[in-house]
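The data are set out underneath:

___
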Amino acid sequence: MAEVIALKLAESVVSETVKRLADLLIQEAVSLSTVKDDVGRLKDELDRMFSFLRDADAKQENHLVRTWIQQVTDLAHDIEDVIEIFISKVKSSNFITKPVLLHKLRSQITLIQTRVKDIFEAQKNYGIQPISAEQARSFVADRQQDARRTDPDLDADEDEFVNLEKSTKELKAHLTREEDKLSIVSVVGMGGLGKTTLAKRVYNQIDVKKRFDCCAWVFVSQQYQPRDILSDILLKVGWGKTIEETRKARETLRQLEERDMISHLNQVLKERRYLVVLDDIWDIGAWNSVRKAFPNGKKGSKVMFTTRNEGITELLDLHNVSTSPPFLDSEQSFELLRKKAFQKGKDGNYSCPPELDQLGRQMADECKGLPLALVVLGGLLKMKKSADEWSAVKKDLKSQLNKRGLKERVDEILALSYYDLPYDLKPFFLYVGNFPEDREIPKRKLIRLWLAEGFMTMPTSGNQATPIEDVAEQFLEELIDRNIVQVAKRDHTGVGVKTCRVHDLMRDLAQSKAKEDNFCGVMQLQHQMNPVTASSSSSTTPRRIAVYFGSHLDHKAVWVSQLHPHLRSLLCFDISALSLLPLNKEQFELLRVLELGFSRGKNSKCKMSKKIGDLIHLKYLGLRAAGISELPSTIDKLQNLLTLDVRDNDGVILPGELSKLGRLIHLLMPLNAKASHVRIDKLTSIETLKFVEAADLIGNDAKSTLVHVRNLGIQFKSSKEAEVIIKAPIVKSGRLRSLTMSMPQNDSFSSLQPLTDCTLLCKLDVTGKIPSGLQFLPPNLTKLVLERSELKQDPMKVLEKLQKLKFLRLGALSYKGDKLVCSAEGFPSLETLQLNGLFQVEEWRMERSAMKSLKRLDIEGIPQLRMLPEEILYVITLQELNVSMHQSFGDRLKGEDSYKVQNIASVNISCCFWTGVLVLVTF
């Protein structure tokens, strides 16, 4: 089976190289003019080789064939290296050195052509024949159509609740027992047994949450950072009830030392009965690092662990009990497999066709009762339709499960789902293994990284029917549908993915397979261990590296010496300072991806090194929260750059040379970036532009030339600017999907009527006065945020008619009236409602059957409002209520109006005083 994996990755590598050479022949026509024919022939040879790779599948058991596949992979990499190194050097050459470089390149091409000849000779000896490319393209097209038809089950976790009744009752009893002092409840068991599933099921029960004054759930993992754990808990127990509070709290927490965070959390918890879950804790050190933050609290306070390490409980200094989810028996195993392999029928059951029943039961038994193995196997079988296909899976399953240990057996079952992935999907999955354990991965970032890596071909023109990022999103959805990747959070539509994560066993699989085939590697500096070892051979060291920096390590550039001499991708996580990255090292000259993920602590201001300009092959540059004060003028050399992310670098200065980056697609800036010298109009490929001043769009007529923009964030200084932009092609082109606009307090939006025609617009965020009302709103909005709108008419009359609206925030000063009325059948799709800073509202009325899909309600700073509407009692979908109001409102909700919220799983009430600025005091 390993040979198949090597084959598929080889296909991906060769395909990527062919595309890259084709791009270089166009983009670097001047640099390659004298060797254009030579490079073209190499591209053609690789293209021909690609067709032979497909036939190697039938002969993969031959170790000579595997050697041949590795030779093809190495050849493709070396061709890219030779051409790109030449391009890097020739651009800085002169009439004396250029001939020397050309002579060296031709010599290297001659050697490569000899290797090509040897590889084709070996291909004949092994009997490998070409297979039609049309056949492969047809297969991929069919699979993409299948992926588009899938409708991910948003309540998929419910399907995994099999045989948990007894464990649920036991765990619930532990959590609700009232000990005098803080106690710990541990959910223990091997990976994939369902510890987190069980813990979540109990944690989310209404009667459990109501016993506690506050609750928090945080992930820990092996690569834990104490300040991240503390920060996440603080945000969930009182520092971030609403989006605005959360944003301000995050800024405050960034400035705090770890010991201060411990002190703050201790103060918040000591007068409360609290429940804090530390999910996936690996060793006692993680607990000890935050132990002082947890006081006894009120009687009955609990901390819950989920862990694989039973030994942790023996080292605790507090009273503790533990429980374990059970393994499933044969019938329960088949029940879970059915739920994952088949769609739910009209009768609410997951029926298995009779011809598949016996096969399914036999395969379910091979999973030995482990839920994760059954879930992943079910995802694999979901893609198979016939008994023959199921029999083939069963045969593969039998041949792989030749080991006695349960852990090894599970690993093979998980690996089988990976083997079944089409070749073009494998790199997408392997890449996810680069991210730290239990880390939520933003979908947009992941897709942009995939594109920069070359996993998908960027269109040469703007006439592609389906945008390339939408196709990449379909690939992610397929990985999710196969239960290989998990959804962490849904976006504002409630259907799309906002963040995803990978179960740690699947992540281990991804890293293992990636290391096996030199696809990518991980360096864990915080543990002083480096799985990547120094090597002079380009075939034994990965070209993609993820580096996990630690918080207590004497960082030096020693780790750089262990990198591949021609590194292509460097992902850094929890890096504390930009100075730790020696950009002058030769290993970085061919980098395509540089993502620097900075730790949450405060970063001192610094200038970006001019050496960044030497990385001319960069396609992705992530510098979010790097503490950068200014980007250097050498940025103009990054002609291949597709994504530049400099968000959260307050006041960063962007040079005029940025205007020369004609291929840039995503430009992400902080609100106060200084970009006045940048000719935005020159960035004609831009699709994401956040945040830009309107004057920079109006100057040089960028508002007319940037017609591919899909995500736009603008800061206006006057109504005249807004009127010009709203009527310009950048908006009227009809491509916008997300629009954020802000206007100063002393001015207003004169008319937003042109937005009515933006039928693709689904996310709108407007800050500023809207005197003309809300009749302009486009029909397909799913998320709407209004701040400082100063509306005079009740906005609910218009908003409740938006059939697709799922998220609504009426922020500070958005409405100046005294009454809100929600009609029957209004807001049919709304899931989240946030009311904040509506100072004049005295009454909120609701008719029955209004907001029948509402799941979360946030109410903050409405000083005249005295009570919740009676009809909130009948919104049976409501799961979370967050209230930050005056004391009489809170007292009433806890007392005479408590019946209105008795069926809501999570109710958080705090008290605040409003004097124009929010001051939060929790009780």
